[in-house]
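Issue 218. Parser rejects a valid record. Input:
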Amino acid sequence: MPSNLSQTRDTRQTIHLPTEREPSSIPRGDINGNWEYPSPQQMYNAMLRKGYDDTPEDAVESMVAVHNFLNEGAWAEIIDWERRFSRGLGYGWEACRRGEEGFQENADRIANLRDIAAPKLLRFQGRPNEMTPKARMLEFMGRMYPAKFGCEPPFDRHDWYVQRRTVDGQMREIRYVIDYYAGPSEPTGEPVFFLDVRPAVDTPTAAVERMMRWGGDVWHRASGAKAREMASS
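Output the parser choked on:
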């Protein structure tokens, strides 16, 4: 999404690559408007700059499409976190205590309790060579219990810095960590990807948010609350 990537055709290039950039749905925190995705030409130049000289030129447009699709998915996950916790921990618990399914069933009612400003992306950082603590833990568990936890390590990692406006009007910067995983391909050959998006544990509040969301879902299912709700309805 950087705007300073070169649009100039490389001297080693054999085919034309588009220079048009696609706008994203992700609001910028520094200026009005949304972030723009790199053009195929910019993507190709960026990969050459990183040393990927064997990148097939005719695959670059598909790579850009996958890149954009994954970023849109990552932003949707961040929005899901912000809908729960931008109003404070008390509201966050109300949103989490009935688990993931309960939150989705009541999403419209929950979203309308208080009006807040939409989050914005301030900046981002690619850190593909630095595994997150969670990814390292899952890799270790995969070695110990391959049948249950075995999977390939993430092929990429991003840190996204998001502007959150609280209910009292204050602006807070929240760092989100994103691990990108590749899954088994579909029978049709289409690639499958999984994203693990969560706030980084930079503050006690972020740690509580993660525990609330995970714990609320586990407790709701393990305690049989769903079955009791269905029986009483």
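Fixed in the parser; the record now loads. The chain has a mean pLDDT of 87.
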